[in-house]
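pasting input
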Amino acid sequence: GQSLEQPSEVTAVEGAIVQINCTYQTSGFYGLSWYQQHDGGAPTFLSYNALDGLEETGRFSSFLSRSDSYGYLLLQELQMKDSASYFCAVSIGDDKIIFGKGTRLHILP
Amino acid sequence: EADIYQTPRYLVIGTGKKITLECSQTMGHDKMYWYQQDPGMELHLIHYSYGVNSTEKGDLSSESTVSRIRTEHFPLTLESARPSHTSQYLCASSLTGLEAFFGQGTRLTVV
């Protein structure tokens, strides 16, 4: 089987930086990806890592360490519109994508 | 921008009815997925496909079935709807299996 662990909630201040961690256990690991979901909406793809290291996409960055089975999503210059749920997901083989339970990000003004 | 469409967006149906949720994508992606998600909860993989005529069950036991006769089309069918099937159903597609692009979802209510 497979498992993913991420914090259920994180709170940060507008303009600050926040990191959402994700640890995973699975065989056939292919990559780790991140998604944002606002209330009532569908998940939207943010970033993926197939190799170790940091991927940067604007204010969002994602990191992967395959040896530690660990990754994180870094959000910089937080804006109120970033209040949402964030999901990490593992790709198993190159076909199956399994999601974590999600992290609810609260942003304070 | 992803082009993946789900219909209907909302559906209220009686117990015992047969329903088909439609999902189509115009990106030519081989991989497609169905997830079930209750409000504020995690996404559960119920079915996936890696190409035409290939379908697999996901990790969540489901009484639904899927078919993949054309690359762009991946419908999900419930033969006999029950109140426990009330949920949001999300369809997604992927080119590489590393990133998933989602449709807007179908909110199903079984009464």
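fyi The first strand of chain A starts at residue 3 and ends at 5.
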